[in-house]
Structure formats: C-alpha cells, structure tokens
Give the backbone structure.
Amino acid sequence: VQLVESGGDLVQPGGSLRLSCAASGFTFTSYRMSWYRQAPGKERELVATITSSASRTDYAESVKGRFTISRDNAKNTVYLQMNSLKPEDTAVYYCNARLISIYWGQGTQVTVSS
C-alpha cells in the first residue's frame, strides 16, 4: 500500500497550490479519502474529505471557500486545490485513505510566507 503526496512548496500569501496524492496497493475506488495537516507544535487536523464516489465533500471551517478536494478514480489520485493561501495554512499535508483499514502518506510541506 502506498500513498504518495506531491505538490507542496513555498508560496506567498494569496497564492495557490495543488496537492496530489497517488494511491496504489488497495481498492482506491472503495475508500473515502481525506487531507489532513499538521503545523509545528499542533495536533494533526482534518482539512477535507471526499467520499468514494465523490458524491460528497466536507471541509474544515478554516478552509471552506478556499480549498477544494477532488478525486480521479481512473488515476487512483486525490487532489487538494488550495487558493487564497494564508500563513496559517503552513503545515505538512497528509493524504489519508479510510474504509476498514486506514492508510497514511508521508506528507508534503506547504509553507505560506512572504
């Protein structure tokens, strides 16, 4: 089982980034997928979730209207489009797959700073 995140970078406030998470080794189309983040000295928090069929998405209040989660089941990939980034969005972003088992990626660093 692998979840490989990519797309993290240093970006200025107000900028945009698109994170990707490529999945392999399990039945991606059956799993609910989520993005979490963890800032230094803080607990890991849920950012966004998408159901297996992409029929429903949910977001943390802090990112609503700025972030969009999506998935491409043909490519076994989940995305997080992040717009209007703020310094408080700085964190390591983790991909998560959940059904009966739970899988995590290794994380990708997002830094929002001028």
About this structure: The first strand starts at residue 2 and ends at 6. The chain is about 0% helix and 50% strand. Residues 32 and 52 are 5 Å apart (CA to CA). The radius of gyration is 13 Å.
